[in-house]
Amino acid sequence: MPAAFLAASLFLFQALYTDAYAIGLRGNTWVILIRFLSGVLQGCPASAFLFNMSIDPFLIRFQHALFPQRAGILAACADDLGAALKALKHLLLFKPIFDAASKFAGLRLKPTKCNIIVGVPLNPPLIYSIKEWLQRKTPGWADFGVVSSAQYLGFYLGPSAGSQNWVAPLAKFNSRVAEISVSGAAVSIAAYTYNTKAVPTLAYVAQLVPLPANAGDIERGSLFKVLKMATNSLRHADFHHLHEVGGPKLNSIVVMAAAARYRSAARTVPSWLDWKMHLLRVAQETLPVQEWYSGMASPSFLDSTPLALNLDHAFRCFPGDQKLAPGARAAVGVIAEKLGIEIVSPSSFPPYPNLQKTVYTSIAAGLFCSDFRDIIYTRISSMCEPYAFPQSALHTQDAFTLLKRLRKHDVMRVVKTWVNSWATSDRYHEAVRLPCLFGCRKLDKLPHYVFCPILFFLVSKILPVPAQPLERIGLVNPTLG
What we know:
Order of helices and strands: HEEHEEHEHEEEHHHHHHHHHHHHHHHHH
Shape: elongated
Largest sheet: 2 strands, antiparallel
Number of domains: 3
Number of strands: 8
Structural class: mainly alpha
Helix content: 40-55%
Radius of gyration: 31 Å
Distance between the termini: 84 Å
Number of helices: 21
Low-confidence stretches: none
């Protein structure tokens, strides 16, 4: 590096670090808010630049060491390095480079944070052999972990990655849901917090990895907790129709994950197509004939689908998934029509505003296509047994119109009545079933309270109450009076 450049660079950095501070206007006077001393997050003007200059020569040396021997590839994101090597022996190519980085730039590995992910089924004898080899060849690296999966930039990679990728995100999601459930917050605040604090915990990994098969059940159970509703009082789709009757609008983790993965495949990570072609070539050359012709593209000991195939599945609108595919195909059709093109590959997909939102809306419309009136009729019919009446006897649409004029908290009170979601000893199947809380000998359950003569008598002393039970609960001739 020319001496003149070094001198100029030194002068530049000295200038950046001289009187570096943030200022603010207080009245008519500029005042110093904070001085920048070091660190990217602290506002240091040259921290990232200095790091990049320090590490770049070594990244170039890594590439020069790997490419001539076709030994593998290496990628870097800030100080997180990851390499895929053909054989363990190629790890020795890195040793002199890391030694130089330590000596000349002060960049040192922390063995306890380094892992060797083995691409074959792992067992104790194999782990011992690799550890023994490290001890002989590179003693300073003998404490490297030897694992079947490890996390890199938020994603687990390796043969057992599938069992790990969702452990931490789902734990955080469930923790946020539990916090919302016990917070005692109003339903509007609870729903907002769920949408902004709980759902996003899954969004990052969802860009490349499908949610677990039971994600729909996880979402439904979580929404019961957030809204403090009795289990099984609503179907999964019903939660996503509550906003149509004045209730809270709730985001779906299932739809969010699908929309995020489609956006990643179409715009964020378009290189997956090259990796898919490479993967298929290697699979054809190395997999047993029976596995290749059965449609497998990776060894059977892997517990998850390769990321490139996850994105391929999303870009092709989730073929074989009857829940996601119709909405995804409809969204792509709308986008293609607006753009006036045929979308056949990521390279043919031009920038499109709000792509993920467009796909989300379309998938949600196809997935949650049930009629909210159906669940109300089902629950009310059960409450009113043995009396029977047609669904047309209920003035649900008029009731929905009136509900939209109420606070969300009050809307949910009404909805909980209609779908038998209030907490009673009978509804929660408690060991001791209480009698009617108003003095009847009937059981403590909502279907009784709809007809309870004592409750009807008490309320009628305060307010004019219709004699017909369905009118009392606002499903016949509804009013706000």
